[in-house]
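Purpose: get a first structural picture of the assembly so the mutagenesis plan has something to point at.
Setup: two entries, given in the order below. No constraints added.
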Amino acid sequence: MPDPSADFDAILTAPPVEVSSAPSARAGGPLVASTRLPPFASPAEATVELVAAPTAPSLADFAENFPLYRDPVLAGTFAGLVLGLAGVFIVLRRAVFVTAAVSQSAALGVACAFLLAIYTDVELPPVLLAFVFGGTGAVALAFGTPARLPREGVVGIVYLASGSLAIIVGERISQEAHDVASLLFGSAVLVRPLDLWLILGVGSVATSVLVALTRPLEFSGFDPDAARVQGVPVRGLEALLWLIVSAEVAVTTRALGALPVFAFAVLPAFGALRLTERLPACLALAALFGAVSGGVGYVTAFLLDLPVGASQTAVATVLAIGATVGSRWR
Amino acid sequence: MTQSPPLLRTRALEIGHGAKALLPPIDLELGPGEFWAVIGRNGCGKTTWLRTLLGLLPPLRGAVERRQGVRLAYLRQKGSVDDLYPLVARDVVAMGTLRSGACFGRSRRRARNVERALSLLGAEDLAELPFRTLSEGQRQRIVFARIAASHPELALLDEPTSAMDLVAEREAFELIGRLRQQTRVTVIVVSHYIELVADHADHLLFLDRDTPVVVAGTPQRVFDHPAFVAAFGASPTRGPAS
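Result (structure tokens, whole complex):
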């Protein structure tokens, strides 16, 4: 069983380390990051050695050092696949910014977990509080919009309130720990084995449920009143969808960062919706675009010495724009 | 009012948003195979009444009693269909086959229902076309096929012909009539087109929020009512629309 206290111990005892946001770094000439990361350890525990490389990073260098990059590549690819799939339902419900608000709520949950551990000795797994906070935010946004307030306004309030609280709580933690941003949001460069397993496990469950419930979810989004009248459990389906999204966002935000998670949940679906008139094909395309964005984005970051999350987002954007342009020739 | 046991009955039903009722209490029974049209001026509470019958809005007072296990279908007002969805017409019709406890997979029986519904509405040639590219009349045909695929006992249609020209309107009412003949479904239609409903409906429900009054009965009884005459003038001519 993973030991959640490893995170807290790491914060309190680890010396400051500098981890580049790119998988390789240049210092005069290109450098290759060599990383040692014990199982279930936090990024703060990583030791990073920068080894001088004689030439610019190439695909051959990447292939040669692939065991170092395997976990983050796998995490990014699988997260992209699952969020791409879920993103179709999110975009069709015109609720893309709910994902951003959920991501902030999840970060607040992580911050609260560390705060509790530091000040009260109550040690809860950060990902659990991330899910509780994110799930509460998602379900509240899906069902609890007050009358006379547009949902976008409420999403904005949740986003800002969670974001500001996460920073305030993060400040309290930062007196005790370094690199708070990567603790709250992850960096996508280094992925702990525990985070990888969570991404694979939660993602597999999420994919199975979404595929099995594709038709009812489609009906409940397309015409919720008619679906309810026919006896389809619309409210239950909506609650399930947002709980799945918040669980996926909680585990992926913690591992990869807020930016790529938001990008995976929006851009692949946007591109896929331009290319097909069938929902199953749309889901498959969005999952493919998401997976390609996660994997190719990491490799691109390695080759061009870019921040990983931004590189993954850029690849997803290029695919979405390409799909939009390509749809004109259909 | 009807010989067979009613599908739906309202007892002193008061509808509205907030505390104040829009209309006087309504007592009504809907029997199998009947065709009801709900008429009245804008904002008189037609949609609110329909949504209260369906359980989408709570009644302010009184009760809606539905026969145990009655199968319902609902078509909401035009304009609420989202063109973002990647659907072909057949997918929309297939939504009619989804019910509580029958949401998974694609059984042969459900596929047969979809084909039968498309055929009943003469929409086989539209089946593989993207729903968002269809004309208003074609979309209406497809959503009626969705209703047929759900095998309802009671179908509630909220202004199904709004935003249509006169020819398309007439065609839509003929499709509703065909649906009713073939499936023996009870139909309630909210409509502004009094001449058309006078041609097709067996019963009218006239709602007037100003008087306020609710009149239910045969078209002639409603057309002769002083409140109707005060609101719309002389009763419309039955037969081919003027």
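The mean pLDDT of chain B is 85.
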